[in-house]
Design the sequence.
């Protein structure tokens, strides 16, 4: 069955703006904008594989691939807001995963909020607060240089919480891992209704329930 795409007007291949109201491109094009070091990014996505990576650049760079040409054309990336706080919306195409993979590069200290029905979310080398919610799928957060979190709250309704960084592994129904550290700077919240959460990195001392 053919996918019908609404006309989206002329898409920009790349933009680099300190302040922006809304920019839209199709999957397969590159979305780029200036972003402050301590900015915040909200991501609202269709089912996909999302990878969020911290970099030394004061820019956000978003790239997207898909398994078929129709998905490449119909999946849209929409960015609104400014360099201090912005929203990335990924929508369109079939409602299943469809092999859509999105890579989002942001400054190291960016705080993120991710909402997605199903898929995989991978976060690498990123400081800042994190709030990630999935209906089904997998969340993987890696901090090879340490976990500077004031609070950690990771839970699944059905599945597994593998908190390797804290020496904990919990599977089954309504499993949760929490940890408090008064000396930490950031907050991490991750919830998956059905699936898995992996917290990877150097061992961070004793686990908490």
Sequence:
């Amino acid at each position: 069955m053919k996918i019908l795409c609404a006309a989206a007007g002329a898409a920009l291949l790349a933009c680099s703006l300190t302040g922006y109201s809304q920019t839209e491109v199709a999957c397969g094009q590159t979305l780029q904008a200036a972003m402050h070091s301590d900015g915040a990014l909200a991501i609202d996505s269709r089912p996909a594989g999302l990878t969020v990576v911290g970099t030394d650049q004061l820019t956000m760079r978003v790239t997207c691939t898909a398994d078929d040409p129709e998905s490449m054309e119909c999946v849209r990336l929409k960015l609104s807001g400014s360099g201090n706080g912005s929203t990335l919306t990924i929508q369109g195409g079939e409602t299943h995963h469809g092999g859509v993979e999105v890579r989002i590069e942001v400054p190291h200290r960016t705080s993120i909020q991710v909402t997605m029905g199903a898929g995989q979310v991978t976060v690498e080398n990123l400081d800042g607060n994190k709030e990630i919610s999935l209906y089904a799928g997998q969340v993987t957060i890696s901090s090879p240089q340490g976990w500077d979190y004031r609070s950690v709250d990771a839970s699944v309704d059905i599945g597994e919480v593998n908190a390797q960084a804290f020496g904990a592994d919990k599977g089954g129904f309504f499993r949760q891992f929490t940890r408090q550290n008064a000396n930490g700077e950031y907050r991490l919240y991750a919830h998956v209704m059905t699936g898995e959460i992996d917290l990877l990195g150097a061992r961070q001392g004793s686990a908490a329930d």
In short: Confidence is low (pLDDT under 50) at residues 6-18. Helices lie at 69-74. Residues 14 and 31 are 5 Å apart (CA to CA). Residues 141-205 form one domain.
